[in-house]
Input
Amino acid sequence: MERAPISPAPPVPRAPLIKNLEFKIGLLLALTVLLIAAFFAYALYARGAFQVSNKLILTAEDVEGVSIGMPISYSGFPIGKVSRLHLLDDGQIQIELAIPREDARWLRESSVFTLEKALVGGAKIKAHTTNLQDPPLADGAVRPLYTGDSTKDIPVLIAKVKNILANVETMTAAGAPINQTLDHVEVMTGRMAGENGLIGGLMGSPEDARKVVKALDRADTLLASLNGVSLKVDGVLSKVDRRLFDQHGVMDQAQLAIVNVNAILGDARESLKKADAILANAQTASKDLTQITGNVAEATTDMGRLRLDIDDSLRKVNHLINEINKKWPFARDVEIKTP
Amino acid sequence: MTNFLTRRGAALLAMLRVWRATLSLTGEVVVAALSPAVYNSATRTVVMKQIYFTAVQILVPFTLFAAILSFVLIQIVVGTAAKYGLSEYALEMVVRLLVLEVLPLVTALFVALRSGSAINTEVALMRINNELEALEDSGVDTLRLEFMPRVIGGMLSVLSLTAITSVLALVLAYLAVYGLQPWSLPDFTRVMGQVFGGGILAGLGAKALVFGLAVTVIPVAEGLATPKMMFMAPISVLRGMVRLFFVLMFIEVASLAFKYI
Amino acid sequence: MPLRANLSVLDNIALIPQYRHNLDYETASGQAWNLLLLSGVESAALKRDPQLDHVERFTAKLLRAAIEQPPIILIDRPALLLPDTHYPRFLRGMLERLSDHLNDCWILDYRWNAPLYHPHPPSPAPR
Output
């Protein structure tokens, strides 16, 4: 206890040391009691102590990720929560849900219940009611809970994406045709750019150009096959989609990944188109000596841009891999480098 | 070597003695606090003064501080959760973090710094100056007049400060997550229902009370254990505060372990 | 025995009946105030221990003992508590003023101080 300041009050049987001590203490204690009592009542209310609720029993094989108090949602709105879990003798699991009366109208005889697990975050119990004109679901009804696990399809997807990436890697590895070609083109344009090397550049260009064209053809084929793969993955996903009832949200991640792959492939294609254009330029140039000096300068800057574009695409692919790695624990390190 | 061991052993024994004295004092105080015969006009005055100095005097600045702390923490948690797409868990996280852990602990630390140290000093000085014996000689039970009311006052103060700051934090959390509108109350209520089970609520109350007990009993016990020499008063306060710190942390860790392991 | 340092003289004296007989504060401090008026040190009522001079402190201690009307009050070597006062006369006057509230009062002092208490030593118990 601190020493209170001495009040200079006149020494009549003394003034109290602290003004309104009793009042202040009483106020504080009353406030405290009030707050605690109110909060306690609120907690009881929040836990549904004062709520009349219907019981709904769902049976499932596996309730991993389900916990007491977990909400059940209808169109994304929580309409009730898990109140009890128990394991039956036959290995089935019963999930008891409490649905407040006013929310029970969203559940009909024809309602279907699913348990969905996402990559991030906990599992979700969802109710799907297609026809709200059906008779309402009775109190204490027993319904099966369907489990849809999008994560099961991820390994397949990952394997495919890896395949694509391996292809991209061979394409861009040191000594790969396209790189050699690019190197050659660089050397060539370098030579062309040099004051004395114009003829040397011209001399070397036809073979190099052929090589480049060949490499580009190969890359195109590769991209076509990549496209095929991604289409296949898309197919898998749509199959998964079809297998589950109403899957938006769960498959978003995977679909997003595919969209990314597609976008990157598009980018790569763009880059290659540009390379084509440049090579076309170069070919025209080799035919037409007089135009060459102007075009060479253009070609060299274009070449630099092409290089940047390809680098960019690769970085995106790399990023995608990292993303997938982050989301999928067993994927090993994949690294793509431009030489 | 033997000498060293002997000294270490003596120090250890002294430490154990202090802990035992603390525990027995705790027992006595609790027993006294629960027996209505102990309360009379004089003890009530001391209880009220204790509450006044521990809670009422600091209520406004401490509440302001707690509000700022809560606000900053809420913003951090909500912002981070939104960045990782986990907004739906932000509110629960905020409530668990602030109301269940941070605010009770901060309150206890604040009261420990302000009133715990004062109590420790006062009791140490009372003991050094023989004031305690003087009271006993005049037929006043010091445990009942001086110590028990301080403990009661400390406990009530920690409890009410915790309650006030916690409710404030809940309001701030609602505002931070949903903004200034009442339509999300059902959502908020659902999350509250998930967080505050009976056990959690009882644990929170018990924790606040145990914090209040520690914040007052340990300084009193340490003050009573002061050797009767003036220069020992600062050492007594120092020891008391260190022990109090460890006990508070121990309570916090124990409550965490109890809840989440 | 020392006074409680963080209570005023008045509170120190009033505390005893307040605690022992569960009087409310007004009654108890009223009693204490009367005693202080009787002994003539009412100016010290709201002071605390460190601010008191020797006479005031001595009186406060005496009153704290006296308020419960114990059968015997023993003053041990008053010279130690009242170093700068001619204490025999002071004591005599004080005890007479408080005589309604005292039953028996013994003063312990050294034998060589005995002559100081003449002609009316309440109970000079030689030592």
User: Anything to note?
Assistant: DSSP finds nine helices and no strands in chain B. The radius of gyration of chain B is 21 Å.
